[in-house]
Amino acid sequence: MASDVRSLGKPGFKFTNWATTYSCHPELYFEPETTEEISQILAFAQKKGKKVKVIGNGHSPSDLACTTDYMISLKRYNHVIKIDKERGLVNVQGGCLIKDLNEKILPANGLAFSVQGTVSELTAAGVISTGTHGTGADMGIISSSVVELDLMTASGEILTISKDQNADLFPAAAVSLGSLGVILHVTFQCEPAFNLEQKQFPDKLDNVLKNLDKYVTGSEHFRFFYFPHTEDTLCFSANRTKKEKNLSFSWFWESLVGYHIFQALYWLSTFMSFLVPVLNRLFYNLLYAHKKEKVDRCDRIFNFNCLFKQYVTEWSIPRDKTAPVLTEIKDWILKNKFPAHFPIEVRFVKGDGIYLSPAYGWNDTCYINIIMYTPFNKIVPREKYWEAFEKVMSDYGGRPHWAKDHKYGREEFTKLYPQFETFCKIRERLDPNGMFLNSNLERVFGKNTMSKMNV
User: Fold this and answer.
1) Which pLDDT score is estimated for 21?
2) In whole angstroms, how far apart are CA 408 and each of 265, 414, 416, 443?
C-alpha cells in the first residue's frame, strides 16, 4: 500500500497563496478524490512520521497553509453530497468551492447562503476553518451556519459532529484552523434564494462613528470603507428585496480607471510615497463620492472585487470600541505621514459560542481590515503600519483573523479566548502526535504535551 500511496503524491510541487505573500515546497503533494485515498495518505504519513497540511484554495494571506512535509489539496474532493430543499440543508465535500455553489448548485435549487464574505473562491472546509465572515448585525460568522460536519482524525477515524452527535466537539470543530483533522463533509443551513438591494453613499467618518449603532442596525448588511488621509467614508447598506436585478457597469470608470490606472498610479507611488494621500483623495472623488444603488443576486452583492495582489491584516474588536480604534488608527497615519492605501474596511457580525471564533462571547463584533497593495507585484513597506495597527487593536482587546498574518502565540490566545485551553485539550486528544500542525499552528497552540511525553 505504501508504494501505491506514494504514487498519489507529487514531489517537487511549489505552493503559493493567492496574494503571493507565502510559498512552500512540500515533500509530497496530494490531490485525493476519495475518502479512502485520504485515509491511506494519513496512514502513510503516520507510518513515515510526517506532518500533513490540508489546504483549501490558498486564499489565506499568511503561512497558515505552508508545510515542508505532506500537503493535501481537496480540489478534487469537491462534490455535492445531498441537498434538502425543504429544510434548506446543503451537504458538500470539504473541497467544494463556495463559488461553484453560488453559480451552479444553490440557484438551481432555489437556495442561498444567508451571508458571505468578500470572496467566494474558498472551499467549504476552508471557509469555516478560518472563521471567515461577512457583515450584518444579526449575522454570525459563516461557521454559524454549519449544522454538521464529518471529520477524519489522524488515526483515520471518521467522526460526525453536530449539536446532537459528538456535541462536545462541535464548538471546536466549527472553527479549527485545520488542526483537528480533515474536514470531509460540511452541511450548511441555507435559506430560500434572494436578491439584495444595495445602496452605497458617501459620508464623513465622524458622522458614521457618531451614528454607528443606527447605521449598523438600520439595514440587514452594513459595512463601510474609510479612506486614509481623508475624512471620507463610503457606506454600503443592503437588504433583501423582491426587486429584479438592476445593475449598471462602466468599463471606463470601473475597469480602466478603477483597476488599471489605479494600479499604475499606486505603482508610481511606490517611488514617490507623497502621492498616496493625493491618489486616495483623487480616487475617492472620482469613483466613490457618489450615491449608487443596485439590485443583484445576494452572493454578487456580498462579494467584492479585491482588485490586484495585496497584503492585508484584520482584527476583531467589540463593536463599542469601533470609534476609538478607528480614530487612533486615523491619527497615527496622519501623525506619521504613512502612505496608507485605501480602503480600511469595517464590517460587523453578532457574537457566538464557537471556541475559536473571533466573535466568541461578544454580543456585537466589529472587524477592521487594513490593506497595502503590491501593484504589479511591487513590494511596498508596511511593517510600521502593521505594528501600529496591531498595537491599537491589542490595546482594545482585539483578536487577529486566523487567516491573516499575526505574531500571537498560545500565551496571548489563552488570554483572548476563554475556551482556548478547552480547544487545545480537544485538539491534543484528536491529534495526540500533532500530525496536523505546521509552524504557524505550533506557534498558536504550542507543541503537543502528549508528544513531548512520548519522546
Assistant:
1) 81
2) 35, 10, 10, 8
Cell reading at 9 = 503524491
What one-letter code names the amino acid at 362?
A: W
DSSP 410-421: HHHHHHH-TTHH
Question: Which residues, in sequence order, are bridge partners of residue 160?
Answer: 150
DSSP count for the chain of H helices, then E strands: 17, 20
DSSP string computed for 322-373: HHHHHHHHHHHHHHHT--PPSPEEEEEEE-B--TT-TTBT-SEEEEEEEEEE
H or E element: which one contains 265? helix 262-269
Q: Three-state DSSP class for 28? A: strand
What pLDDT shows up at residue 226? 98
Q: Helix, strand or coil for residue 24?
A: strand
CA distance 130 to 175: 6
Note if the pTM is more than 0.85. Answer: yes
Q: 292-308 b/e with 16+ CB inside 10 Å = b?
A: eebbbbbbbbbbeebeb
Q: Quote the CA–CA distance of 160 and 35 in Å, as a whole number.
A: 14
**φ, ψ dihedrals at 90, nearest 5°:** -125, 120
pLDDT in tens, 394-409: 999 999 999 888 889 9
Surface-to-core class of residue 361, CB atoms within 10 Å of its CB (0-12 exposed, 13-18 middle, 19+ buried)? middle
Distance CA 263, CA 280 (A): 12
Q: Which single residue is written with the C-alpha cell 489605479? A: 262
What contacts 217, CB < 8 A, 6 or more positions away? Answer: 137
Q: What pLDDT band is residue 2 in, cutting at 50, 70 and 90?
A: low
The kind and range of the H/E element at 292 are strand 292-297
